[in-house]
Amino acid sequence: MKAIILARVSDKKQDSNEAQVVRISDYIKYRDLTVWKTHEIEESSTRGERKKFQEVIKEIKKSKECIALVVDTVDRLQRSFRESVLLDELRKAGKLEIHFYRENLVINKNSNSADLLRWDMAVMFARSYILQLSDNVKRKFEQLRRSGVWTGKAPIGYKNIGSERDRNIIPDSQRAHLVTRLFELYAIGNVSIKTLCKQISEEGLRSEQGKPIVPSMVYHILNNPFYYGQMRTRGELYPHKYPPLIDKKLFDMCQRKQRGWHKKPFQYSAKPFVFRGLLRCATCGCSMSPEKKKNQYTYYSCTNARKEICNTKTYVPEEALLQPIYRVLEAYKSIPQETVDQIVGFMKSSNENEQNFSTEAIKSLRSEYDAIQTKQNRLTNLLLDGVITSMVYDEKLKEFKERQQDINIQIEDHTGADKNYYFTASVVLRIAKNAHTLLESSEVPEKRAILNLLLQNSVVNGKNLEFSLRSPFNTIYDIATQPTGRGAWDKFRTLDWQKIQIDLEKYQEDIEPQEEEEDVFQIAC
């Protein structure tokens, strides 16, 4: 009978195909078989289509006589029952006889139930071995994730070092600062990913192959939590042990920026209007619609979408609506520079005690951080001693890591509070003092953005505009009208400056500053 020798390994670390062929060749001589073909295969028995194995099956099907397929052992031929279906059909048809050398088992069309059961049992044990390996790999990777180890390729800005058994990830000295720069540019600049991609490529950020960065790579970087200390695996986030390139606050700022880009833009008509979409009717709450009269003057009237509430249609000139706003801006303009300097000095003086508080708070937070780290070490010992389960370990570890992350954010807030405090407050005062000139000299889109920054709850009651000022401009108005009132100064000092900074960043996207005021808005954002 003609025989096909089949030797297979999954990788080069296993028993070589040559050794298998030697053993099988001796067996073939003993069984008085004739070697027809020899196949030495290097492929997995559980992954992929097993193309080389399928080629052997095709050769057996084409043969007009029975072929002896000789293998070293069952697991060299198969590790699942999927192949048993193909092999058993050929066996029943009398086209195949299978010889398992180590099991001393021969399967053909005349095999009894005991031999077929031995074959099935051998396949089952081979499959069991694979399943155990899979479980071991899963446990290993789960342990690595809990230990903060990243098993994949290092993302752009980092690099892998060391051997396969003892490898580590460190920041790439040539590209790490460019990745940080990418996040900063996107967070503070009014640029799209495509524009940012071109700019950062010109500054020197390249792929592993040395090619320019493409938009998809920039998008992947901006959405990868690895850069602030978290690794994403199967949709879950785990803290990793490698040095972060950015903080979470900067990452979240970029996320908010992306969500803003994905908003559906509102489509305006070709003719721009200052108050379009900003005013509502005080009577019925409907929008005030602008229209041109004699192609020169702009008037606003209620759309009366809720029928029969507004009895008459009143047209209000745009210039009349702007007058009360200009009066407020005149008050801002009248604030003496001496008063501004006094306010800044007052804020600086009152902040000295806050600085001492921040120092003590940072000290307390760092002590809490160290205490949590000690608890984590104890928790690991409890897991190793079998006192707690892995599920309890994962839950407590996640709780500890989240608290440590919150502590780091609080420490950063305390550390950078003084800088942001003066930075934003001084800019807001400068914007208020120059708002009148800026509003008069700007084009319609810039005027709309400035009004959005200043006003809220704007309604038209009859022919009068009624509105309230946003924070902090309402407090600045109190300072302008009551310059000696220390109560307004103290209120100005205690405002939520972090929220005000976010508002300034938000409206900066819509404002194109005039040349003489460009430095004001650049500083503000």
Question: Would you mind describing this structure in some detail?
Answer:
The protein has 525 residues and is of the alpha/beta class. The chain has three domains: 143 residues, 3-Layer(aba) Sandwich (Rossmann fold); 104 residues, Alpha-Beta Complex (Hect, E3 ligase catalytic domain fold), CATH 3.90.1750; 192 residues, no CATH class. The chain is 54% helix and 15% strand. The chain has 17 helices and 15 strands. The protein has a five-stranded mixed sheet, sandwiched between helices. Strands 10-14-15 form a three-stranded mixed sheet. Helix 10 packs across helix 12, helix 11 runs antiparallel to helix 12 and helix 14 runs antiparallel to helix 15.
List the SSEs and their pairings.
Blueprint: E1 2-9, H1 17-31, E2 34-42, H2 51-62, E3 67-71, H3 74-77, H4 82-92, E4 96-100, E5 105-107, H5 113-146, E6 158-162, E7 167-171, H6 176-188, H7 193-202, H8 215-222, E8 230-233, E9 236-239, H9 248-261, E10 280-281, E11 288-293, E12 297-302, E13 316-317, H10 318-333, H11 337-384, H12 390-441, H13 444-454, E14 455-461, E15 464-469, H14 473-481, H15 486-493, H16 497-508, H17 518-524
Parallel strand pairs: 1-2, 1-3, 3-4, 10-14
Antiparallel strand pairs: 4-5, 6-7, 8-9, 11-12, 12-13, 14-15
Helix pairs in contact: 6-9, 10-12, 11-12, 12-16, 12-17, 13-16, 14-15
